[in-house]
Design brief:
By secondary structure, this protein is of the alpha+beta class. The protein has one domain. The chain contains two helices and seven strands. The longest helix has 10 residues. The protein is extended, with a radius of gyration of 17 Å. The N and C termini lie far apart (about 50 Å).
Amino acid sequence: MKKLVLIMAIALMFPMMASAEDNATAGAALELEGLTIAVSPGVFAYYNDGGVADPQWYLIATVHQGGTNFYATAQNSTSIFKQDATAPVLIGDLTGADYPTETEAASEDYWSDSAWTR
């Protein structure tokens, strides 16, 4: 038992790596190499890190099938941004949800130029 607790404690000290994944199934868990982001039924999740081998920048967005807004944020932003959604709501309808680089993801201009508001 002590060995098991020790192994678990050591394993928890190492971060898990995540990779790019698009989740096109509403209500399904977004699975990223050891990281699972569960969403409610009817919610689509979108994750974009540009598909690079060793990603440093990312963007994540969500939308509810019956909702009227997309919500998104990025790795270096403390804000949540909103964009109007029209029915039928599809994650592919997102605009400006392309791969952010360096500081542009936290820049107000990056979001406002792509029809997002804070």
